Amino acid sequence: MGSCFPKQIERRKAISTERKTMRDLHQSCGEDFPACALRPTDRKNWMAGLNPEKIHIHKILWPGTHDSATNKIGFPCITRPFAQCQTLSIYQQLVIGTRVLDIRVQKDRRVCHGILVTYSIDVVIRDIKKFLSETKSEIILLEIRTEYGHDDPPDFEQYLVHQFGEVLIHQDDNVFNKTIAELFPKRIICVWKPRNSPPPKAGGVLWSSGHLKDDWINTDLPSTKFESNLKCLSEQPPISTRTFFYRVENTVTPQPDYPIVCVKPVTGRIHEYARLFITQCFSRGIENRLQIFSTDFIDEDFVDACVAVTYSRIERKA
């Protein structure tokens, strides 16, 4: 116990120092990037508002959510604060502009985050179908994976194909060079990542894990995560030449060796710096690598920033 106390003091100092580093960077660099003042008038239909015939898939900066279906996970005020990464339902996230969903499942088809569980995947699918029925030009990138430490749901690939049917965009590397309009009436790119079952086959209805990549940096230190995200992003090929999606997550995560283990106060250390990250991508010459940008507790401003970058790309300002 005695040896633990000095370590906690050092961790607290490190967190404080890194938070100051972020504030100083923000103060010196600001949030200025092409079209940064853009605010879509209709976030629910923001792709339609930018013209589906002009938006190529590789030019989109996709706003995404991390652990998307955790708004009702665990028990309120007891276990929920340790696993909840979003307060909005899947439908509400889509309405405010989210276009990439990160869904974790276990063997019984219930959504989970670690050992904590929530509603059935059917709730997620119902929300997605409702959103699709109310819009005409929005494309969703849906990632579903078996959570670490869990077994795959039986026959899950067939289940997904049955649920979404004709709206699924088949795996094809040429998709990245197509416009949204060229993909209609298909509207979902579904990436299925099983742990033990065979992965989706190339050219099939679903996309495999190799088509959605990221570099997960597991830390609660905001400046460490921020700079690591920039470094990993800089090592990726430009979006114009990629045949996979690459995700950057504007999150930091609680660590088991530190007393603060609730998600919201921890991820709050980096949450407000999404626009700063985009600004740094431009200033460091790696904007042309940024493709999926995800966050905990997504809000309208995060979506607006991603839409602004997408607009700047299709208008040849970036």
From TrEMBL:
PROSITE patterns: PIPLC_X_DOMAIN (PS50007). It comes from the Eukaryota. Transmembrane segments: none annotated. Gene3D superfamilies: Phosphatidylinositol (PI) phosphodiesterase. This is Phosphatidylinositol-specific phospholipase C X domain-containing protein. GO terms for molecular function: phosphoric diester hydrolase activity. Residues 51-193 form the Phosphatidylinositol-specific phospholipase C X domain. One of its GO terms (biological process) is lipid metabolic process. Coiled coil: none annotated.
